[in-house]
Design brief:
The chain has 7 helices and 26 strands. By secondary structure, the protein is an alpha+beta fold.
């Protein structure tokens, strides 16, 4: 059997009405003139929702080494705990059972998002909602801001780069529903300046939107159940899309958690722990690092390079990396693996 090795994957590109062209700077071969909003770097979803991933499966294909051209599930089946570690294997089995995949799946979903315009105002199922509704899955996510720049509305008004996380003080369900109905719900959102190097973690049930001009690396639990409440039709003149108001309102906590109190902002641009959740941790790393020294024994590591270039060594054949490269280092390889590169290298190291 082929021994485990560090893998990279073919990106799964998704065109979006709010997308842009910046992902070409990160090594993505974008279709001509397409507005690409998402690059799914590592995905293992047997199905996606029409309101999220667009329906159908989304499964990453390995792009290097002996398993090149094969789906990530083949590596999981061949290597098991050597790939995912015991904790990752247990989590992948749990997610596979919850989603009906019928097998152990990769327990995270790793993406880049390029918001040329504001994304829809949305929420993902709360724990209570997910328990009560079959097919609705939790989605806790973190956004690490890679780029943030000013954009313009169709009428020429300038828009500062922002992220919208939670609700303002005093917004209750009645006011929220009323403002959805009259198209003014954006005033209810807690707007934060988007700054490169900041990391925003959004627990399930937090109403949110990524603002125009912001490009993020996103780490999340493997679910795309999404309930939209507003799509910025007034601001961008978009055609109407389906909304899911009752479902969204059922998920939102209109107390302190709903105001974003459970969604911390971490200034990780200088390095250090960027996010910690029950499902994953994210560390921002400048320059070279010894993965074996920084990753807990028995855990896999995902390395997302957001700036600079280098290579991963000590995990099979050396893997060259540059801005936009995402690599999965199997748990069995982590003890001997190193990320090498100069001071310009900025990477996210994600572990379960």
């Amino acid at each position: 059997m082929t021994e485990a090795y560090a893998m990279v994957f073919e990106p799964i590109l998704k065109e979006k009405v709010w997308g842009g062209r910046r992902l070409s700077r990160y090594g993505k071969a974008l279709p001509v003139e397409a507005r690409v909003g998402e690059s799914w770097e590592i995905a293992d979803l047997a199905s996606t929702s029409a309101s999220g991933g667009g329906g159908g499966a989304a499964v990453s294909v390995i792009a290097n080494g002996a398993l090149r051209g094969r789906p990530i599930g083949d590596a999981i089946g061949a290597w098991g705990a050597d790939l995912l570690g015991e904790r990752g294997l247990a989590r992948g089995r749990e997610v596979g059972e919850q989603t009906g995949a019928g097998r152990v799946v990769f327990p995270l979903l790793i993406k880049y998002l390029d918001a040329g315009e504001h994304l829809s105002v949305q929420v993902h199922p709360s724990p209570d909602y997910a328990r009560a509704h079959e097919g609705a899955h939790l989605k806790t996510e973190s956004w690490f801001v890679v780029e943030a720049e000013e954009t313009a509305l169709p009428d020429g008004a300038r828009v500062e780069p922002s992220v919208f996380v939670g609700l303002n003080e005093g917004v209750d369900e009645a006011a929220f529903r009323a403002h959805i109905a009259d198209g003014t719900v954006a005033r209810d959102l807690r707007a934060l300046a988007a700054l490169a190097g900041d990391c925003h973690t959004l627990p399930s049930g937090t109403v949110h939107a990524l603002g125009g001009g912001v490009l993020v690396a996103e780490v999340q639990t493997p679910s795309d159940t999404t309930f939209r409440v507003y799509d910025w039709q007034r601001e961008y003149g978009r055609p109407d899309r389906a909304l899911h108001i009752d479902e969204a309102v059922a998920c939102i906590d209109f107390g302190s958690a709903g105001r974003g109190d459970g969604a911390p902002v971490v200034r990780a641009g200088q390095g250090g722990r960027a996010a910690w959740t029950a499902y994953y941790t994210i560390d921002a790393v400048h320059g070279a690092c010894d993965l074996g020294a920084m990753v807990e024994a028995g855990a896999f590591a995902v390395v997302m390079v957001t700036r600079g270039e280098g290579e991963i060594v000590g995990a099979g054949e050396a893997v060259p990396v540059a801005a936009g490269t995402t690599a999965l280092v199997p748990a069995a390889c982590v003890p001997g693996a190193r990320l090498v590169g100069g001071d310009a290298l900025l990477s996210l190291v994600i572990t379960p």
